[in-house]
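Explain this protein:
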Amino acid sequence: MVERRSLADVLDVMGRVRGAIEAVIEGKRGSIDMAMVVLLAEGHLLLEDVPGVGKTMLAKALGRSIDCTVRRIQFTPDLLPSDVTGVSVFNQQSTAFEFKPGGIFANIVVGDEINRASPKTQSAMLESMEERQVTVDGVTHVLSAPFMVIATQNPIEMEGTYPLPEAQRDRFMARIEMGYPTVAAEIEMLDTHGSSDPLSVMKPVTDAATIQALIAAVREVYVAPAVKKYLIDVVSATRQSRDLRLGASPRASLQLLRASRAKAALSGRDYVLPDDVADLAVAVLAHRVLPSTEAQLARRSVSEIITKAVQSAPVPDKR
């Protein structure tokens, strides 16, 4: 039985989580808030940026801030699907097969450089990310809740990498870029990280059961029919855009709705505004669509195309 929590609890607990992470990562409140939105919306997060900007640090800090199981999977070309999902091993003493869980069996799974694994290994994560379970040798094993995959990838270095297929990208609720820190934040980083590792002294500020209760509270956030219609109009605009040869899927609509609920809750509201949908559209939709050849030749970014789709959707009357 999950303990009932209020939106005030969401603000209190997640405020402590934000504070704990900001003690490790300076000047990245937008990225931290997005990670918390995805966590509360029961999604998965893809961090895509150049090396050294704190992608893995953010994933580790989120895991350390919660008293739950955290496992890291270092994706390499020789990583096997069984390393991720687990394998059945024959026990000679009991003369029976025993299941040995793989790296995916944790509340928060940090997938470092996910695009370095082969497509076969990447596909091993599809069932777990969508259905929160793993099937090995015909036996289904349910993953413990909450469950979140935070994967990182380097968009610059292409040698020895395998681009994520559309089905895999569609499993991630949001994709964000960390970006370089400001001068002040980088000076602060030199002071805090130059002599010690702040992760080593980081203490949990909440636990898995509390996070699960907050997730249940976020599900109760109200979404008006007019806001749902606005959300569908935004997603439909990506399917009709001439700049895209692949628009956002129905799964994208559902995950944009869940993320909007979480964003509203973190803003202290028990209802979703059209602004919540618009603010999250690029992060939730951009990695799911494919630009047309004409858009690529014109050097129109996917973010610009999604922003244009948002602007084309009629905003519901606030009255």
